[in-house]
Task: structure prediction
Amino acid sequence: MIFICFKNNETMEISEGGNTMSRTKSSLADSEWAIEAHGLMKHFGENRAVDGVDLNVRAGTIYGVLGPNGAGKTTTIRMLATLLRADAGTARIFGYDIVKEPHIVRQLIGVTGQYASVDESLSATENLIIFSRLLGLGRKEARNKAAELLEEFGLSEAAKRPLKNFSGGMRRRLDLAASLIAQPPLIFLDEPTTGLDPRTRNRMWDTIRRLVDTGSTVLLTTQYLQEVDELADRLAVIDHGRVVAEGTVDELKASVGTSSLHLNIRNHQETIVACETIEQILKVKTTVTQDIGKITAPMANVDAVTDLLIALRQKGIQLDEFSVQKPTLDEVFLTITGENVPQEIKGSEQVEGERV
Ligand SMILES: Nc1ncnc2c1ncn2[C@@H]1O[C@H](COP(=O)(O)OP(=O)(O)OP(=O)(O)O)[C@@H](O)[C@H]1O
Ligand SMILES: [Mg+2]
Result:
């Protein structure tokens, strides 16, 4: 029989056969890896949902998992969180095996994305108090914790309303709030900001950063490339159940191409001459955006910019705008997965347009 409890939310006691072992949250955070997964596999009938996923997530970091719909992100999380048994492969959470020691693993993690666990007929406050009490908090402590979390997630005004009257975004916030009562060392966030308005999304990002600042590790799946750009220390791109790219955001961007040139010329009648000049000097193909007359081109050698500017001036071509930029994550995603970026995965503009 194994017994685990958190004392003062700081020390974890694991008792087995009369021996008690204590580990503090900070000592867990000291272990180098929060997640070490090798060759994880899951079939649903003929469908290989997860096809040999390796993931190594350093403790104390934010790790992003990105991929098109149906890539296997949620299935991977469910296996790591011991909610689903893997067909093959191994994984350790802070060194504990997900198959041999699932009871310990469950004490170390929090998973969001399952608001079925919240009671519809009760208010937000009542739900959070119940979760707090289940986690061993005293009555007063539970009430304070509920109020504190509702305030943090901007739900104070709606606190007394039954959940059946909550919007999708409000439910999502309450779901995350509930999973933060115990602030577990490792938190799985499955698309935590999908469907949130921009203000709430920014608030959620602050909360996620604060969780990591106070010792937790976060694994986050998202449909928003910008979210990974903002938050993640490293990321994996999953496609058809496999990790097809892994690294820091900058590494992934660099792997796709170095830089791209963006150019707007004043007189659009000179577009063809401008393109010819660029192609001659940079030895690459240019692309012209029809609607705004913008010329873009990949740029392997940034030093060639000087030669290009001189050549354009010699031909009397005047510029409105000239920039050399790193590729965007949209371009990275497209190149790696070979798919068009779905509408919902696009980025900030898309998110700005959404309302809960
Ligand atoms: N319980 C299940 N039974 C059968 N098939 C499933 C089950 N869960 C997932 N799948 C299938 O496994 C594949 C991976 O699904 P998963 O939910 O892991 O994808 P995802 O990357 O999280 O996608 P999304 O971005 O849409 O959330 C899909 O083809 C899905 O239809
Ligand atoms: Mg999913």
Q: What stands out?
A: The pocket of adenosine-5'-triphosphate (ligand 1) is lined by residues 44, 47, 49, 67, 69-75 (CB under 6 Å). The radius of gyration is 25 Å. The domain at 31-253 is CATH 3.40.50.300 (Rossmann fold).
